[in-house]
Each structure stands twice: as structure tokens, then as C-alpha cells.
Amino acid sequence: MISFPNAKINLGLQVLRKRNDGFHDIETLMFPIGLCDVLEILESNTAESTFKCTGIKIGGSLPASENATAVYANGQHDNLVIKAYQLLKNDLELPPLYIHLHKAIPAGAGLGGGSADSAFALKMLNEIFHLNLKTEQIHTYARRLGSDCAFFIQNKALLATGRGEILHPSPVTLTGYFLYLIKPDVHITTAEAYAWVKPEANVESLTVVLNKPIIEWKHWLKNDFEEPVFRNHPELKDIKDTFYRHNALYASMSGSGSAIYGLFDHEPENIDFPGDCFCWKEWL
How many domains are there within the chain? Predict the structure, then answer.
């Protein structure tokens, strides 16, 4: 079976408070976009599971280059697709697998690529092996993998609270707008970003802000990670400013960075970004 785990962007991201468990309470609107990885899962004809990762380098203990293959045992690798498999295998009877992940979503970008891969793996395994897990059961497994993994189970515009795992319906639509996304050669870990940010609980609800016309979002819709991340990586602020100079209706960093996106009511032309930047464009 083959599936196409997609990325997301964040429309606003408020870091409200640090929790006793070491995480933070946040409020954000997560919105799926068309940028996708490719994930293939097959039952293996060998005694060990095999993981092959190609495409964009993802870091961690697994290589991402053409024909990179790793044979692994339980607990030896940190890729979220493998963790999803192991999580289900601990509770249910699953055979060895052949897994091929082709990465097109950059890591360290705030686009949720690894979370999407793991969530899609859960759904695929449920279907391939007729596990008959209900949606809420899959959600429970996804929450154990990461704070925003559960979002990709429903994979539609959702308001996320708590650590990002508590999801609420949202009426927000971006249909008819043009998305222009740039990710420079800057990698920001989630741990770094949270170490820099200062929580602020007394802020206006994100729902209220999102109900304003999109042309007003640039005055009200904030990502709390931007100020400290831009301070450490001013080239990211330059990208955001460039979008506004080219008449973006709204521009923001996604998640904890480092991808920056602009929303337009037209397809912009002649925006000059450095050649080593990753670029994605689409009509939403």
C-alpha cells in the first residue's frame, strides 16, 4: 500500500503556559497543505523489518539518501514511522514489514512532516492488516507518538489546544487563496524554539482573531515563536517582510519554524529568494 502524508501550516500559534509535565499549553489552527511525502508499507518476506528512506535528508539515526536501507530491531531507531509500527506491534500481532519513506517535506521546518508520516502509518497498518481500530483508538495511539500527530488522523482544518493534541472543529477555509512557502537552509528543533519563547496566557482567543477578515490577520494573528526565532535567525524575518512587500494578505512562520509562508489572492511573480531555499507553491 502507498499513501501520501501531507504537510500542514499553522495559522497563529499562542504559547500560553508551561505545564507540570514539561510541555506547554498552546492554541493554534492547523491547516493541511498539498506538499506530500510518499510512504509505502508492505508485508516483508524476511524475518526482520526493513526501512528504506530516500529524498530529503531528515536527520536522526536513519539516513535519507538514494538506496539508503536499514534493518532494525525494536527500539533502535527514532523515526516516527517505525515508532508507529512498534507501538501497534506491542499491542497487536503484526508481521515484519518493508517500509519505504520518500521525504519531500523538509524537516526542522514546522510543517509536521514526521508527524504526518507516523499518523498515515497508523491508518495504513489498520487498513492493511484489518485491525478494526476505531478512529478514536487511532487518535489515542497518535497522541502517544507526538503532540500534533493526531491532527493528521482527521487531516482537515482544526483548532488545537492542550499540547496540540486536543482538536476542535474549525470553520476556517483558505479555498481560492495562493500559498507560497519558503524554507531556507535553517533547521530549528522544537526544543530550541520552546527554550527561546516566553509564554503569555492573557491573550485574545485565536477563534476570535481567525473570524476577522484575512486582510486584518497581519495585525492580529501572531505566532509566538516568531520574535525569538527571528532574533536568532534574522534571515527568516527578511523572508516574511519580502512576502509583504509583494502584497501578501498574510505571512507567517509555520509552527516553530523555519518555513515561512505567504497567502495571496493572486499568484505572485518575480519574488527573488536565495537559490538554496526550498520552495512550495499551490492554490488552496
Answer: 2
The domain of 63 spans 2-167
Catalytic residue from among 8, 83, 103, 123: 8
CB neighbours of residue 91 within 10 Å: 11
Q: Please give the Cα distance from 271 to 246 (Å, whole number).
A: 7
Catalytic residue, candidates 37, 52, 123, 148: 148
How many residues appear in the chain? 284
Instruction: Tell me which amino acid residue 233 is.
Output: H
pTM exceeds 0.90: yes
Output the domain CATH number for residue 218: 3.30.70.890
- The whole-angstrom separation of Cα 28 and Cα 10 is 6
Q: Which of 167, 202, 225 is the endpoint of a domain? A: 167
Q: Report the alpha-carbon distance of residue 20 to residue 187 in Å, rounded.
A: 28
Q: Is residue 277 one of the residues assigned to a domain?
A: yes
Active site residue 8: yes
> For the segment 27-69, what is each residue's pLDDT rounded down to a tens digit?
999 999 999 999 999 999 989 888 888 898 775 444 444 445 5
Instruction: Name the DSSP class of 223.
Output: B
Q: Is 148 a catalytic residue?
A: yes
